């Protein structure tokens, strides 16, 4: 695995002995918005007799045609989720110079640490309004300096982190394996927590802009894109700004993520492994409705990325063979983490005007932008 270097900047570190401030979510928008209608699965069914097969049947069309779905009863309480939001809020309240001292090695394609505000040009001459802090796996090789608020709640964050990966993601990978008619643990084995990979918990913040700035930015926060890993989880989000494009010819629709619900999207690696049968969910983030535009949009996500045990080649699936998606890729043998890091590196060279720009490796291709 590539060595993860850090930018070392000597700045005073904010330390606090105060208890974590209770996080209060902003109110939902009262405006009439067009919401996407997505499949919802109840993960409490998973361990019941016939439960996995039932859930896989419910998911099959969603992961093939849309790339997004909801999960309920995923084993985390509202209090546990809200405390992660509270940690995120405290981090983003730190002085900018201090946040920058925890910058991730972005040029290496690794999101382990802080990604600064305005890192990407999303329109010609205009920088984005997003910043985030990633915490990668709780393994020795991923350790680095962290802000005091993260170190104070280290054990709590680890428990949350591992639950996302070992309890939610593993179950979803087993459902996808059932759909593809693969051995049940085949996809899990390519994403084991103890293996080398760039999976991570993300605290994310879109900073509010003025109405004049929103006009200049064409009401855009983040260009349409797919995620570069395997699957992505997005926790409760009352500020309406995330939109999905369910089909190539459909309009953008808002994606509500309400309390007790987890939004899950299929990402590029699953599309590659299935030679296009599993759809990588296309999404973007726009300016929130008028009654929410003054809020900084705080987000909590978990990105599942492939380990070095997973090779980037199509799986030999009976389903794919029957439906004409099988592809003989025995001559391609690319460690999957190389793909995700290549996609991240592309962020630093991509053109904000080229909607047709792609990332290609080993015969696999992903579009960088969607309109």
UniProtKB/TrEMBL annotation:
Residues 40-144 form the Non-haem dioxygenase N-terminal domain. It comes from the Eukaryota. It holds the Pfam family DIOX_N. Residues 205-306 form the Isopenicillin N synthase-like Fe(2+) 2OG dioxygenase domain. Gene3D superfamilies: B-lactam Antibiotic, Isopenicillin N Synthase, Chain (2.60.120.330). Belongs to the iron/ascorbate-dependent oxidoreductase family. This is Fe2OG dioxygenase domain-containing protein.
């Amino acid at each position: 695995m590539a060595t993860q270097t850090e930018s070392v900047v000597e700045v005073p570190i904010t330390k606090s002995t105060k208890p974590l401030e209770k996080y209060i979510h902003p109110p939902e928008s009262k405006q009439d918005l067009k919401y996407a209608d997505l499949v919802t699965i109840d993960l409490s069914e998973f361990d019941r007799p016939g439960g996995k097969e039932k859930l896989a049947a419910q998911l099959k069309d969603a992961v093939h045609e849309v790339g997004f779905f909801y999960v309920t009863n995923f084993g985390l309480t509202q209090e546990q989720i809200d405390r992660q939001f509270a940690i995120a809020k405290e981090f983003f309240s730190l002085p900018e110079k201090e946040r920058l001292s925890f910058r991730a090695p972005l040029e290496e394609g690794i999101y382990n640490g802080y990604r600064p505000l305005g890192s990407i040009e999303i329109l010609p001459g205009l920088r984005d309004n997003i910043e985030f802090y990633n915490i990668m796996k709780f393994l020795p090789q991923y350790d680095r300096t962290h802000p005091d608020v993260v170190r104070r709640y280290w054990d709590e964050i680890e428990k949350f982190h591992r639950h996302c990966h070992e309890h939610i993601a593993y179950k979803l990978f087993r459902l996808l394996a059932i759909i593809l008619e693969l051995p049940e643990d085949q996809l899990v084995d390519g994403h084991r927590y103890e293996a080398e990979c760039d999976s991570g918990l993300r605290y994310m913040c879109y900073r509010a802009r003025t109405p004049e700035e929103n006009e200049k930015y064409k009401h855009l926060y983040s260009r349409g894109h797919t995620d570069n890993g395997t699957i992505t989880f997005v926790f409760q989000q009352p500020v309406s700004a995330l939109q999905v494009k369910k089909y190539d010819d459909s309009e953008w629709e808002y994606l509500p993520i309400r309390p007790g619900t987890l939004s899950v999207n299929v990402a590029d690696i699953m599309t590659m492994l299935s030679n296009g049968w599993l759809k990588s969910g296309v999404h973007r983030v726009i300016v929130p409705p008028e009654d929410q535009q003054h809020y900084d949009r705080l987000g909590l996500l978990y990105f599942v990325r492939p380990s070095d045990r997973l090779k980037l080649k199509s799986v030999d699936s009976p389903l794919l063979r029957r439906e004409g998606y099988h592809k003989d890729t025995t001559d391609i043998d690319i460690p999957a983490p190389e793909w995700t890091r290549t996609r991240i590196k592309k962020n630093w060279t991509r053109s904000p005007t080229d909607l047709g720009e792609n990332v290609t490796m080993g015969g696999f291709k992903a579009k960088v932008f969607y309109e």
